[in-house]
Write a structure and sequence with these properties.
alpha+beta, 6-stranded mixed beta sheet, 7 helices, 24% strand
């Protein structure tokens, strides 16, 4: 069993499709939120008020495989983005002036700042976006105990979801950040559209 959660697209990859089980979502659609983090001393950056202004005046940098970030930002009109293969190189890109910010999940610090490459970064106040994906745990289909573990995991996740344990755990560890609850969600309309579609799919079928 893997120790991290993966987005649902991962399970469609040929190397995983027939060899692993995908659990119920531990992070539901829209729960993975990110802010636009830039150095605290980058003049003018933290005054940005819209996606249009961000794209016009500033350059972002993301990982080469951050496909969901790239797709989401493109839908918002934010395409002034550089993609690089190594996360460790992102601070160097920003501190050298080749890029200005990186979209990251919010820090658990009270002031929302975080440190990259020895330098403090802060998010643009009031702006955030949600990754339009769910995240799941992965269990091997090929291990002799894989199916038994998967069934037990599913039962446990259902109980934890009902009791609110999953949300509480992600909130207490800082991944879900209540301090940004009232910030403008730039892709709110798209998220609500997808949530409506998902709700319709989850409705029980009418008896024939």
């Amino acid at each position: 069993m893997a120790s991290q959660a993966y987005n649902s697209a991962t399970f469609e990859a040929p190397e995983y499709r027939s060899s692993v089980f995908m659990s119920a979502p531990v992070i539901r659609l829209g729960e993975f939120e990110k802010g636009f983090y830039g150095p605290v001393d980058r003049r003018g950056f933290h005054c940005v008020e819209s996606a249009e202004e961000l794209n016009r005046d500033w350059v972002g940098v993301i990982g080469l495989h951050w496909n969901q970030d790239a797709q989401t930002l493109k839908r918002l009109g934010v395409e002034n983005i550089i993609r690089i293969p190594l996360f460790e190189a992102i601070p160097d890109m920003i501190q050298s002036g080749r890029a200005d910010y990186v979209p990251l999940s919010f820090s658990k610090r009270e002031d929302l700042t975080l440190t990259l490459g020895g330098k403090d970064y802060a998010p643009i106040p009031g702006l955030k976006f949600a990754l339009l994906e769910t995240r799941h745990l992965m269990v091997s289909r090929t291990h002799p105990d894989g199916e038994r573990v998967f069934r037990a995991l599913q039962r446990g996740l259902a109980i934890m979801r009902q009791r609110g344990t999953i949300v509480r755990a992600y909130t207490e560890c800082g991944f879900f950040q209540p301090r940004v609850a009232d910030w403008t969600l730039l892709n709110k309309a798209r998220l609500e559209e997808l949530q409506t579609r998902q709700s319709r799919r989850d409705l029980p079928s009418s008896p024939k």
